[in-house]
Amino acid sequence: MIRKLIPLIIMLCVFTVLLLPTTFYKIEKSTTSSTENENKNINTDMSIKPDNTTNELKSFPKAETSNKSEPNTLVSETQVVKEQKANSEIRKTDIDTSNYLSSLQCISYKLKQGETLTDIARKYESTCNLNSTIKMIKSINKIDDVNNMNSQTIVNIPENALKSGTMYTVVAGNTWYKLANEYYPEYKVESVMKFLVYINNLPNNDLPLGEKIFLPSL
User: Fold this and answer.
1) Nearest residue to 97 (alpha-carbon basis) of 166, 191, 164
2) Is residue 209 within 8 Å of residue 172, measured between CB atoms?
3) Is the pLDDT of residue 70 over 70?
4) What residue spans carry the region label Disordered (predicted)?
């Protein structure tokens, strides 16, 4: 009986061997096709999304950027201007030369025979230069022509002011502006400059090197 079945078993084995590759190929092909279809669907979805994303990105306005930056010099200049304005605001009012001269305490002095205004000024030469002393005495006494003075002339001399000021020797780099700003910081520079120029009575308002100028005490 077994011998009769052996040929049949052999045929079944052969048949199975022949059919199995074909079956596996079909299964594999089916699986591959399914995978490819899924990939196509995915690619199709992906091909749509970039367009939508691009459109969405286009719809957003571009952020404005500026590479401009203010220079440090501009900041420094602005700070300097602010400081100058602040200093100007806390300064006192302008110096009025006429008011200053009229407010000075004076002594009365009667000229001697042959004495001149220059002779009187020399008495205060250690504390005030000749130009300033003569200018102040002439202004206070309203003297237009010194030749009209004689031994009967009485003049008012601002002795305290002539002795309490500062004698300053001009050095290189000095200007009226610098001197006004340094010695009279509580007053407006422009008015102090005019005041000093008037009191010292120098030709052309110059500041000759080595010149001794008078800085009144205010």
Assistant:
1) 191
2) yes
3) no
4) 30-87
